[in-house]
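QUALITY CONTROL LOG
STEP: pairwise intake check
CHECKER ROLE: data steward
CRITERIA: each record must contain a sequence immediately followed by its structure tokens, with no blank fields

ENTRY 1 OF 2
RESULT FIELD BELOW
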Amino acid sequence: MDKISKIVVSLDSHTPHQIFHSSWWVDKNNQYVKPFTSITLDDLNSGKYRAVIDPISSRDYIKNLEKLNKKSLTVWPYHCIKGTPGSAIENQLSNMLYFYSIAKKSPIEILIKGEDPATEMYGIFKAERSKKKYY
């Protein structure tokens, strides 16, 4: 413990309505798309899929991903939903972190990622695009 000067943890935190979840997209039969579906600009242009939340910005987002030669949008299973165990620090790790915090008089810094519903955020430092509120 004496060799650690600071602890920073990150938490993934989402709502069901995020651009990479099924609730954002439907297929040509108005069915929510299944997890692990890739959505491309060609898919949107052909009518294979469409956004049910902010269609114009959603299209721009996918267009920009392709323009920058990034991954296509992948629809992920619902995960790390706020208020569920999936968005929390595991209990034993939490106990150890807060023991350290008390013993060292050093607060644990918690960084939360994934709160912008209109973008993916694969790491804690940078989202795929800037924050925009939709609700």
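ENTRY 2 OF 2
RESULT FIELD BELOW
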Amino acid sequence: MGLYEYYFVHLIKEQLALLETDQQHVAVETILNAANSYTQNGLILVIVLMLSLSITSFLCIRILVNLLHDMNTRLKAISQLGATRRDQLAVDPIPVISQDAIGEIAININQLVNYIQDLSLFRRTLEGDESVDDIYHRLIHVFRERLKLNTFAIWEITEGGSINPVLTYPAEIETETCQLNFAATCRAYRTGETVNSSRYPGICPVFPQTDTMTHCCVPMRVGGKILGIVQFLFMYVNSLERQRHFAYSLNLARQYLSEALPLLHAKHLHDLATRDALTGLYNRLFLESNINLLVAGIQRRSSTLGVLMCDMDQFKLVNDEYGHEAGDKVLIALANLLQSNIRASDLLVRYGGEEFLILLSDCHEDMAVQVAEKIREAVASHQFRYENITMRKTISIGISEFPTDNTHFWETVKYADVALYQAKETGRNKTIRFSPDMMKEE
């Protein structure tokens, strides 16, 4: 029975009760009046209900339209964020006004926006990093702190086709993971596909911990070329829940890798061009590309740049007596020794062969001579080792200063080279400061 009919029957019952109990006669006209009253009140009630429903529906539709408008705005911002990653787009979260399907959609869109914003910020941060090592350490932070992937190794593929672990976390797992010499023996490199032993146990015969650990190897592919492999390690996956967790974390890790790889490749190529392959030091190309900025800073501060040209004495004897591999080991040790005896703000360059150039920034009076003598003594007292061979070597150093000796940087380098020649000619194992009379002798 509807509300309208219920109200009518109730009035009729009341009027009949009056007919039975009232001592006076009630005219039939009273019943008719009651019916008219019922009609008027019913119409008013219906109108009120319809207005209430209309207002409520309008408000609900308005709220829904506003919510959809907010979602559309966020989705447009996501599109712009994908097209212009370098722009910092502030996208406010959609308010969650209910716990139903619409609220769930709002939550999912908020999570998607946050994820894309985080990827964009991650990429912009990488663009400000200077080296390959900086990018690797940025990835380590993401893997560990955000994705809770705490055991992994990063392998690089060399031009010669070998594969080497460049970073492992923690460091001690290097002896527990794959022992590879050639990239072709790695299934992930050979196939170019992700290799996951949680789905297919024993899929890679090279992996040594098949009984205790699960591994997932992700190729670092850029432009059809595989730069290396990222290998994630877990304790053996024995539950569907853990497998889903790892799958989710690995999927996010691949997304972060995809953001890092183009920049990693570019900086790797830059390092190949501007760093010495043997010692890892900057080379002459780097110096030529960046010296104007360094000189401008010295001039702006009205400061002095110390120039040390260093050359190991009789280095050729090492190659002749012990071979070029021994000579390479000695040069690497010398580079490390030189780096440890200068400041982080100074620049060490492998200038060519066994020659190294050191630039001492903001060099006060006599500082260059003091640093050069410190280096000479450190080299003379150092024992260079190769396999079971121990040898002693010395170094000669020529010293000049920019702009004290010359207002042109490359002329100042030439002066340091002239002083080095004097050190060699007068007995080696010396540090000599340039003086103008040396140019007359030259």
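INTAKE CHECK: passed for both entries
DESCRIPTIVE NOTE, ENTRY 2: DSSP finds twelve helices and twelve strands in the chain.
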